Amino acid sequence: MPLTGSCMCGAITYSAEADEYISALCHCTDCQKWTGGAFTSNAVVPRSSFQVRGNPATYDAVGASGKINKHFFCPTCGSSLYTELEVMADMVCIKAGTLDNGKASLDGKVDVEFYVKDRVQYLGGCEGAKQEPRFG
User: Fold this and answer.
1) In angstroms, rounded to a whole number, what is the distance separating the alpha carbons of residues 105 and 118?
2) Which domains, and CATH codes, for the chain?
3) Fewest Cβ atoms closer than 10 Å to its Cβ: which of 8, 12, 79, 116?
4) What is the pLDDT of residues 27-70, one digit of tens each?
5) What does the alpha-carbon distance between residue 47 and residue 129 come to, in Å, rounded to a whole number?
């Protein structure tokens, strides 16, 4: 079953023909700024499986790796939709809150947490998730 989702206003929709995905939280300070929250929750899928309908706006940020993190968002409602990272050129990081059908829950599991060195103090690690101080 494909993953589907959209921005808040529905102007941009997407789908990923991926039966499986990597569920990841990122606690880096860039993701905190990107979401206005403590972390991003992501469904990481192969870029070849991902299709977008509509015209998202983009913002490029240089990550801790020195590589570009391209953020895609709706220019109308401002919803953060997905990120393409130069360090993972073959993958797309879909922002879980934009997924349809209750998938924001990431099916109740988190595979990995990145940048736990930047995790806010009031949060603990997710049980069973690999804990990475940085990316990779």
Assistant:
1) 22
2) 3-131 (2.170.150.70)
3) 8
4) 999 999 999 999 999 999 999 999 999 999 999 999 878 899 99
5) 23
